[in-house]
Structure formats: C-alpha cells, structure tokens
Amino acid sequence: MRAINYLARGEVTFDQVADPIAGDGDVVVEVKASGICHTDFEVLNANYGTSAFPVVPGHEYAGVVVDLGPGLSGVTVGQRVVVDPNIECGACRACRRGWAHLCERLGAYGVTENGGFAEFSVVKASALQPIEDMDFSIAALAEPMGCVLNGIEAVYDTTIENTLIFGAGPMGLLIAIALRTRGVTEMTFADIDDARLDLAESFGFHGVASESAELDKLRHGVDLVVDATGAPSVAAKLVDYIANGGKGLFFGVCPADARIEISPFEVFRRQLTLAGSHSLNHNIPAALETIKAYGPDIARIVSHQLSLQDVAAVLSSKPEPGSLKIQAVTD
Ligand SMILES: [Zn+2]
Ligand SMILES: [Zn+2]
User: Fold this and answer.
1) Which ligand is nearest to the CA of 101?
2) What domain range includes position 211?
3) Ligand 2: centre distance to CA 95 (Å)
4) What CATH number is given to the structural domain containing 176?
5) Ligand nearest to the CA of 281
6) Interval 6-59: pLDDT, tens
7) Could you report the per-residue pLDDT of 48-94, keeping only the tens digit for each?
8) What span, in angstroms and rounded, lies between the C-alpha atoms of 268 and 78?
C-alpha cells in the first residue's frame, strides 16, 4: 500500500510500504478521510516528546473495516468507523481514574504507532467507533471534536452567557460549535486574520479584530475566554478579558518553554478559574453526537480535500495561509 512515512525528524516520504496485517484483536481499516492537525507537525519535529520514527502520521481518521484479526467478534467487515487514536496503558494512576488522556505512558495511532495517512491502517478493534451513514470527512472531525469536548468539560457550566475565543481556526470554530449545541449564544472570535473572522461570522459568530477598540470593550466582561492560538502573547492576555467569577481555558498548544505572568491576587480577588485540557478521553461517541446535533454545515470546517501525495507535500512544508482543516480523502 502507499503511505506517508516520517522516517526521521523532519523527513517525510510518500512511498510504497508493506500491506498491514491484522494480529490478535486488530482490524484493518481502509482509510477514507484523514485530517492534518498541528500535532502532525509537532511529531515530525519531535517536539511532542513521544515521537517514534519511523511512523505513519495521522490521528484523525475514518474509514471502512476491511479485515479482522483471528477470532474477533463484535466488528464486521464493511463497517464504517472512526478511530480513537489514544492508546493508554490502563494501569497507571491516571488510567485507574479513567483519565486515559493523562496516561503516563500515553501512545497514539499516528504518533507512536502507525496512523491514518495511508491507504490502510491496523488498529485495535477497541479503538473503533461506528459512524453509521455519516460522511467520512465529517466523521474524521470526531477526534478534534473529542479534544474540544474534553476542554469544554474542564470549564463549562450553565451560567456561561458569553464566550470570547482567540483564534478562528478549525479548533476555535469547533469549540464555538460545541458551545452552541450546549446553548451558549453569545460568542465572539478575536483573530489577526480578517478572512478567518469573516468565516467565523458566516457560522453566525461575532468577529473582532485583535488589538481593536471593540475587543478592548470586552475587558473583564466575558464568562469564558479561550485561547485557541497557542501563541504565548495571546495566552498572556487571557485573564484580562475574564469577568469576575469567570473562567479561562488554555486550549492552544504553546511552546513548552513559554512563560506568561499572572497575578495571583487578581485570580483570588476576582475569583477566576483557569483550566487546561489535553487530548481526548474516550469521548468520540459524544463528539459524534455533537457533530450530528450541529448538522452538515460543519463540513465547512474542512477547507481542503487532497490526495495522500498532496498531504505529504503539506506536511513537509506548511499549510497555505487561510486554510482550515486539511484532509486526505479517497472515494
Ligand atoms: Zn489532532
Ligand atoms: Zn496509563
């Protein structure tokens, strides 16, 4: 089969590799849609701590089961599925608490094991979630939506009336979409890119330019403020916009060595809650429900549907400006 392969740090190939074989407990999935994520670049640059070369990247993918390992039941050939990429140890303190995303030995398809930028992918049957008749490209948004729901779980409560999200990229938009399905109506995006703000407005969200007077008016006025940029300069301003008693979520991935200043007095006096969230925790089923509840318009999060070969080219450079979710698709 053909696959994108990370041979070593910074080295991307698109080539013929051995066809995958299903061992005990495994299935072979024919990949139909597989999304690029910021993490794929981190893995390539070995910034993520867990990169294991060589590895086939891709952890946001959906497809069809085409082969089963010996003696497997409960899965059928022809089943349409999405993959939960996380592989937890099941034994550490976090795992015993049900926090797979915080597993001390967390692995993932597309990070430590071969993933979804290939014609076929071998995964444990337990990693599969059926998608019924959902479009593959939409179903491949279930993994990023799972990460979003894990983040929302860390901060959501029914008193939230308004939200400010920094970064109108695919993750920011998915956060807003998930909050909307939970009844939050007043959502504002701040971004430096006008085209992205226009897109956010086309989804019915409000857009304001970074550094604008309009953004300034939101100071100390927002119940939930989210950084979905991963820019330390943005993360540093988060607290300024949170209303008294409100919450801030650090969702974007800042560089590991970045530092920001926060006044503990302010966190105390204005009773602020600051939260982080990492990855997803067995919430693909909830993600699929949220995607269904929002409806097919969510497909507009996907800006590019490319061949595997073209995705290899994107991974070895960077996405073109203005792109949202980029996927490799086959029909
Ligand atoms: Zn991802
Ligand atoms: Zn564990």
Assistant:
1) 2
2) 146-276
3) 4
4) 3.40.50.720
5) 2
6) 999 999 999 999 999 999 999 999 999 999 999 999 999 887 766 689 999 999
7) 766 689 999 999 999 999 999 998 989 999 999 999 999 999 999 99
8) 55
